[in-house]
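explain this:

___
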Amino acid sequence: MSQFLDPKNWTGLIRTADGWSPGGGPALAVFDKATGEQIAEVGTASPADVARAAATAAEAQRAWASAPPAQRRDIFVRATEVLSEHHDELAEWLIRESGGIRHKVEFELFKSRELLLHGASLTTRPLGQILPSEPGVLSQARKVPRGVIGVITPWNFPLVLALRTLAPALATGNAVVLKPNPHTPVTGGVLLARLFEEAGLPAGVLQVLPGDGDVGNAIVTDPGIAMISFTGSTATGRKVAQAAAPLLKKVVLELGGNNPYIVLPDADVDAAASAGSFATFMHQGQVCMTAGKHIVHRSIAEAYATELSVRAQSLRVGNPAVEEVHLGPIVNRAQIDRARRIVDDSVAAGAVVLAGGGHEGPFFKPTVLSGVTPDMPAFTEEIFAPVAPIIAYDTEDEAVALANMGEYGLTAAIRSGSESRASAVADRLRAGVIHVNDQTVVYETWAPYGGMGSSGNGDAFGGPADPEGFTEWQWITRRAEQTTYPF
């Protein structure tokens, strides 16, 4: 194995403008999600470390923003090369630290490369426009970096969900202070620090500060940090927004989802069950885009439930580091207990377990529930585990109402034998992302991704949203000659 992520170079340390150095917080142990074995130890920051990072990042950002575009572009190109050179090593870390299966990890590394190339492309985009003006005056509207951006990321896709902010933020001339999730501080933090270090990013432009909620709060409330990008639960997202509000700083939130997967009566049941299985069971259901409620027409609900159950029972569950499996471990015991509580309470209320329903250690079995109704926890709550609740409906109006029920509005998907029929339903859904004749877990680097309702705050990540989100407008005029006024 290469020495790219050799722990001796970063164990117990954080990445600041001074390089790898001890942080003011306690050491944080990192565990293999399948075995519980400790695999690393990272340093953590203190609120005082955050204040220093914000100040030094602001200084580094000014020089970074004025660097030639080609220089910034080449750093992103080099980062893609570093990612490829150490692919196998990074894949092993992602499997063990995030609990992802090989397919998930390969997808994450592929999309990470795309995001770095996306960042490279942003470095040479036009920065504004010339506005109409009187003779002798040059009037410009231009986009300028926001300054220092605080990024707080989740654990489920630690690399991609950090890079989707880091890449455009850095590419548009900002500096970043990153707090990775405590469950994945290596692949969500150390890896990124090393990646850009090897690529030649100047010191201080990216600083990585693992830590707990106090560190996150310090990032959100530091007056030297101009913008916050947070991906995580809706409950925590509300706290982030409240803490940032007095400072009037921009906050971009991508939060929870309880995503509907609608199957119309003319859909191919086998194809729909195949897509529905992937949408709920991919990465153990620990994806914000997971299909959380399968809304199926009553005429095919039983056939769909049978097909979905057969698929669920055929999926292999185990340790992805040592065997080929479809599902790996759940992130921690608290999440297992939560999923089990939702299943048990829904069964007590009348739902029927057709497959799975329990767990063995950290491995939750792919679960299918039929007979679910809107008053059950399996319908109302975001489960974040491999549980597929099936809800039968009779009319399209009822399907739309069920899909739109609740506070979330992240993703949705509709299956039908008629694209026009499915599209008509799609036009009535309240969600930031909608897929016709597909499933809910779809991600493209160049597409804007964000939620409605309690799934976000109206902003998006990706594609055309990035140049706008990580810069702000500035109007500047230049007169060829000085002028006077009648005062």
